[in-house]
Amino acid sequence: MTIQPVRLFGDPILRARAVEVETFDQQVRQLVTDLTDTMYESGGVGIAAPQIGVGLRVFVYDTGDAQGHLINPTYEVIGDQTQTGPEGCLSIPGVREDVTRSLTVHARGFDMDGAPVEFRAEGLLARCVQHETDHLDGVLFLQRLDPATRKEAMRVIRESAWFSAGVTVLRASEIGARKRAAAQGRGR
Ligand code: ZN
Known about the structure:
Blueprint: E1 6-7, H1 26-42, E2 46-48, E3 58-62, E4 67-77, E5 82-88, E6 96-102, E7 104-110, E8 116-122, H2 123-136, H3 147-159, H4 161-164, E9 169-170, H5 172-185
Antiparallel strand pairs: 1-9, 2-3, 3-4, 4-7, 5-6, 7-8
Helix pairs in contact: 1-5
Bound molecules: zinc ion (ZN).
C-alpha cells in the first residue's frame, strides 16, 4: 500500500482538466491502489487522482454501502429530483457546506482492467459520483455553492491555518486526524 499526500485548495492541479486513461496497465492498477489507501487513511468517502497529484480521469469511492473505482467516468442524470446535504472535500479541510446535487445518476466508465462498468447511483453514491467527476474537470464543490455560502466557505478557507501558511499538500493521516477531531467537535 502506498498512501499519498493530498493536494489542497490552491494547488493548480485541482483546477486542471484530467486526461483520459488510454492504457490499462500496471501503473493504472497502482494508481487505483494508491487512491484507495489514501482515501481510507484520510477518512474520505471518495478521492480523485488529481487530489494525489495525478492528472488522470480516475476516482475511487466507499460510501459504506458501495465501494469501488471508476476510470474515464461519465454520468447521466436520471429524473429531475435533487438532494441537498452537507459536503466536504479532502482537499479543502475544515469546510463543510450544503450542496444541491442530482438525486440519481447513471454512471459509466471502466475498471482497472479496461472492462466497461456501469451502475445506477442514488443518494450519497450519486453525490460522490458527481463530486469526484467534477474533480476530473478541475471543478471543486465550492463552485457548486450558492454565492452567499461560497463567500462563507472562502472566509473559512482564508482563516484556516493551512491556507494562511501557504500549505498546498498535507499527509493523508493528518487530514484523517483533523476529520476525526471535527466529527467529535460536532458531537458524533
Ligand atoms: Zn473533493
